[in-house]
Amino acid sequence: MPISRTARSWLAWLVVVATVLALAPDPARAQVSSQVTSQVSSTARTDSRIGPTDCRLLGRVYVGGQGCSRDRCVPGARIAKAARGAELCALRGQGDHAFGAPVDYRLCAQLHRRWVAQVNWCAANPDRGRAVITHAPQCTGTASTYVTHSDRAGAYDECRSPGDVRRLREQARQRGTTLEREARETSAVICSTRPGHRFTDGRCERGHDPADTPGGVLLVGDSIAWRGQDELGTRWPDAHLDGIPSRRLDDLRPRLDAFEADHGAPDGLVVELGTNAARGFRASDLRAVLDTLPARTPVMLVLPYRADPHRPAEIQPASTRTARWMRRLATDRPATCVADWRGVVAARPGVLVDGVHPTSSAETFWAEWIVRSWRSCGRDVRAGGRRS
């Protein structure tokens, strides 16, 4: 029997009502939806946070309406860094130089270079054959001429004003040197990163006295500290933050030596290492490094955590072994504590993007947690106790 027009209208209305009810907000459904959205964003092949200008500075392809590609580079470039949330490209044939450099965000600003905060890279000249670039997109403000050095400590690339460049060219002509050399030797900023040097009478000279810039708390870390340096720096401005991707525990002693050459012994030390395994490095080696410090120097050891990104529950043995060393050291050495990052990760599912690094939104949480942990460590040290 055919359905009347009226009946069909009622049926259509009922379908609409049912659909509306089905789509009505539900706490459980909203939570699942949020989790799905979060999962999609964490696995997306584009980063919607990065606009076209910064995307090009990273050497990545910008996809209109979606964002900056995570796995596609501009023509002639390759993926140099594939880690989630820190993707970066490099031109072929440029060694380990890329479109960005792991320069501290404060130093990046002092060098008048553009800081790409979403991925923590300081924009760099990807073509090292170009010594001087006018109107460089990597530069900020009136310092629009990019002068290429080695982009390493003591010789970082720097942007200078056109007036500076003209003056330096004339100076180089008179001295029989090069523009690049004069730019490097007359930069107070670059000189401040060169161990054992000081800026005197307009030039960088040997002879720095550690007493001129004494002490301070030093944090030595890997890519976790590097990713969170801008968030941590604003919350702990007096700390010396020394975080670089891929750093290992066997890099701790050289970093301490470099600090002491310019500042003397640190007033305190935070060790955020152990995520990357150091072959042949033992607990006794870590103890030997800490033994070079005065016994009263506060030390905080951040327990490392590294899991298989495809099997988050499987913590890699090397990080577990290092955490065990650190706990033992904290019970043996005076003025020493541990900060239990492993426990934090276990209590906060989803805080890591890849089994190692905090998500971009969790970098602030990590920075605040580090500051709280150091303050708590200080209270325990003053009380004569140890945290383990």
Automatic annotation (TrEMBL):
InterPro entries given in the database record: SGNH_hydro_sf (IPR036514)
Its keywords, alphabetically, are: Signal
In the record, which residues are listed under signal peptide?
1-30
Q: What is this protein called?
A: SGNH hydrolase-type esterase domain-containing protein
Q: Which organism is it from?
A: Nocardioides flavescens
